[in-house]
Design goal:
This protein has two domains: about 130 residues, Response regulator (Rossmann fold); about 70 residues, Orthogonal Bundle (Arc Repressor Mutant, subunit A). β1, α1 and β2 form a beta-alpha-beta unit. It has a five-stranded parallel β-sheet, with helices on both faces. It is about 55% helix and about 10% strand. The protein is built from ten helices and five strands; from the N terminus they run βαβαβαβαβαααααα. α6 crosses α9, α7 crosses α8 and α8 crosses α9. With about 210 residues, the protein is α/β, with parallel strands linked by helices.
Length: about 210
């Protein structure tokens, strides 16, 4: 994962946000902790997460709605749902059927939460590796010079707007290049593209 890998935490409970943030730090990842779905959907436009931990009980758009919205934007983003009310079999089944990677009941146990987060992140990495094995033609060598340049900037944690400004390109042009990078690498998100760049040695080569 890149140095800017971020876990999105969405919960209106400050104590829960702090607990998840503490476990995120133990994983060596950054944490973006917000109180509502609306704020979450705004922040992920500039900071694509590698994992999301979402409370089912949220003001406005609830956690299940946010789960679906994130799935539309990031196809393979692992999501852990947490709940203090819908913790019976029916509630858990509903969350899992909608695509959640895991479902935990509050109050959260820090050790269990950390283990579940590690497992979800591991699944995401294995899914990417499987996709690469099934499509060996997808490789960073297929990228153009400009596409490789933009991929390296993504690996540094730059946003589309920052890349556009630095390369003197329009945001639309940068977005098109990013879509070409995803297509050529056979991945579905920018985080997966950055992971592919690290795995293929593109980022390390550029830093030497």
């Amino acid at each position: 994962m890149s140095e800017s890998a971020t876990v999105l935490v969405v919960d209106c409970d400050q104590r829960a946000r702090s607990l998840v943030a503490a476990q995120t730090a133990r994983l060596g990842l950054d944490c973006n902790a917000v109180e509502s779905s609306e704020v979450a959907l705004t922040t992920v436009q500039a900071d694509e997460p590698v994992l999301a931990v979402i409370a089912v009980e949220l003001p406005g758009l609830n956690g299940l709605g946010l789960l679906q919205a994130l799935q539309e934007r990031f196809e393979n983003l692992p999501v852990i749902l947490i709940s203090s009310k819908h913790v019976d079999g029916v509630g858990r089944a509903a969350g899992l059927l909608l695509g959640a990677d895991d479902y935990l009941a509050k109050p959260l146990d820090p050790a269990e939460l950390l283990a579940r987060m590690r497992r979800s992140l591991g699944r995401a990495v294995r899914s990417l590796e499987k996709a690469r094995r099934e499509d060996p033609s997808s490789h960073t060598d297929d990228l153009s010079r400009r596409e490789r340049e933009i991929l390296l900037l993504l690996a540094e944690g730059r946003t589309e707007m920052e890349i556009a400004g630095g390369l003197v390109l329009s945001p639309k042009t940068v977005a098109t290049h990013i879509q070409n990078v995803l297509r050529k690498l056979g991945v579905h998100s920018r985080t997966q593209a950055v992971a592919a760049a690290y795995r293929d040695g593109l980022v390390e080569t550029a830093k030497r």
